[in-house]
Design a protein that fits this description.
Layout lengths: L20 E2 L3 E2 L13 E7 L10 E7 L3 E9 L5 E11 L13 E5 L12 E7 L9 E8 L12 H4 L17 H26 L4 E2 L2 E2 L1 H5 L2
Antiparallel strand pairs: 1-3, 2-3, 3-8, 4-7, 4-9, 5-6, 5-8, 10-11
């Protein structure tokens, strides 16, 4: 599953997420009126323990009525500073914000989908948007971040399959094919030998006219 909804959480045996503690979603509100307006935007901040930096390979979560997702990461900047960079912008989680489709699916965002480098990340900010007034509450749940070098568990295959030559490295056949020049020479030799045999057979057919090592003209004249 890569950037698409799935039936269940993709994490499994052999995969260990990075230790992190995401904060609860903070819903943005607009003041200035009798009641604060809700623009349909929420923010979730995530930091790693003790200010550690981590390399991100995959982000896994379960949606809860969030229509669009943007992701920003904090990375080292010049002179030891930290700067925020957008690595995912308005990623669609619900094809239609007013319907249920995609509202509670699991999603996996992989490294190759990011717009920027996601190494040495010290913090991650998730910006959630839900423009539909139908859903009063929206967030993302079961948030997990996985580092590089971890692969999803795969089914066991027969041992003979693992011994096959990979497609990207086909076996070399040059050592098993004969030299074309040598083959051509042998074919020519066989052709010459065939012509010699044919000449000998022709000589054997007219040998009955041979008399004491010479041909009898009278006998040849009757043929």
């Amino acid at each position: 599953m890569s950037g698409a909804p799935g039936p269940g959480p993709p994490a499994g045996p052999g995969r260990s997420p990075l230790p992190c503690a995401p904060r609860p979603a903070a819903v943005l509100q607009l003041g200035g009126g009798a009641e604060p307006a809700r623009p349909g935007v929420a923010v979730i901040d995530l930091r790693f323990p003790r200010g550690a930096a981590a390399d991100v390979q995959e982000i896994v979560f379960r949606n809860f009525y969030t229509a669009f997702l943007s992701v920003r990461v904090q990375r080292p900047g010049p002179a030891g500073s930290r700067r925020w960079v957008t690595c995912l912008r308005d990623y669609c989680l619900m094809p239609c914000p007013h319907t249920e489709e995609g509202s509670q699916d699991y999603f996996s965002l992989r490294r190759h989908q990011m717009l920027c480098d996601v190494d040495q990340v010290t913090a991650v900010r998730f910006i959630l948007r839900q423009p539909s007034p139908v859903w009063l509450h929206f967030t993302i749940e079961e948030l997990q971040i996985f580092p590089p070098g971890q692969k999803s568990p795969q089914k066991d295959f027969p041992s003979w399959l693992s011994q096959l030559t990979p497609p990207e490295q086909p076996a070399s056949l040059h050592g098993e094919l004969p030299d074309p020049e040598k083959v051509s020479t042998e074919v020519q030799q066989m052709w010459v030998l065939t012509e010699v045999i044919r000449a000998r057979q022709a000589a054997a057919r007219i040998g009955r006219f041979d008399v004491d090592g010479c041909y009898d003209i009278n006998l040849l004249s009757y043929t």
